Predict the structure.
Amino acid sequence: MNTFAQIYGRAPEGEWAAPGRVNLIGEHTDYNLGFVLPIALPQTVRAQARRRDDGLLRLHSTREGGAVVEVAVADLAPGGVTGWAGYPAAVAWALREAGHEVGGAELSLDSDVPTGAGLSSSAALECAVALAYNDLYGLGLSAPELALIAQRAENAFVGVPCGIMDQMASLCCRAGAALHLDSRDLTMRQVPVDLAGAGLALLVLDTRVKHDLGDGAYAALRAGCERAAGLLGLPALRDLGPADLPAALAHLPDELRPLVRHVVTENERVAEAVAHLDAGDLAALGPILTAGHASLRDDYRVSCPETDLAVSAAVAAGAHGARMTGGGFGGSVIALVDATAAGPVAAEVTAAFREAGYATPRTLTAVPAEGARRIA
Ligand code: ADP
Ligand code: MG
């Protein structure tokens, strides 16, 4: 008997999977309505689910021990469900908020996406649940529509002011490609990324630290960007091009200048990266990654000693380039390496961490994988 049947005493109606992601380049650009370039990971959150007709949402996760959390969907309100169950409950709430007549369900979640590692297990969880609800209740929503529901769930119910990248990545990425996404209008293009064909590999080094500072800092950075756009008379920082950057910087107070410089140069780095991918020159991404990290470290100030060390050690060990990925203050670093160098680079980073007295990083190799889908 599978887990779902053990818990709920009957079989699920189906099973849905949604992946975590790493972003190749384009960090902290999504809420500035700019550009991002994520790939989906092979690691997924899986949701087995069945409809309930009594309006109850019953939630179970293999990550969270045996307990089933039960809530009535009609009673859902922001702040009403805390902890892990807040994420799936948030999705049911956001669907209803958007006018979709969804009722109860029983859900069992399983996952191999590391949590709190900057690989977006939260969006994977939301998207698996959103897709399950979409099918169980025959809503017929598109992937971008579901991504907006999931983002609203995380923003307004869980209380994390994230942009749209993570949910769009989880729902819209395709195997073998990176998702070149315009965060303003959600237009997107699948850009082929054949790492193996280029003799390359993408290492993910999970530093296993998450500094508490991150939560409030993210909201403050977002607010700073919005303030800068307002002072410049622009709808969003995405509307500032590199040619206008010097004049814009001269117009802004000191504390906002580095934020604006990061966002403008980062959008440029996304465009450069896409051009290199289109030209089939994958190794040329390396210096762009490393420059992106320097911008996050020195201008946006969201790196930390652990991610800085992972980047510098990886580059010293021969990586073409490396950067932190995700919101920052810990989490994971990606390093673009020759396929034959993946093991040695991981070993060098691990040795550098040992020497610095840090926890042993967890290493994965990322292959651009398929976005969210029904699997049973
Ligand atoms: P990230 O998205 O980078 O992994 P977050 O802090 O945004 O980090 O989200 C992690 C949270 O998502 C966990 O603390 C937990 O509440 C929830 N979560 C993720 N995966 C699962 C899972 N399989 N089961 C239950 N909760 C999960
Ligand atoms: Mg998250």
Remarks:
- DSSP finds eleven helices and 13 strands in the chain.
- The chain has a mean pLDDT of 97.
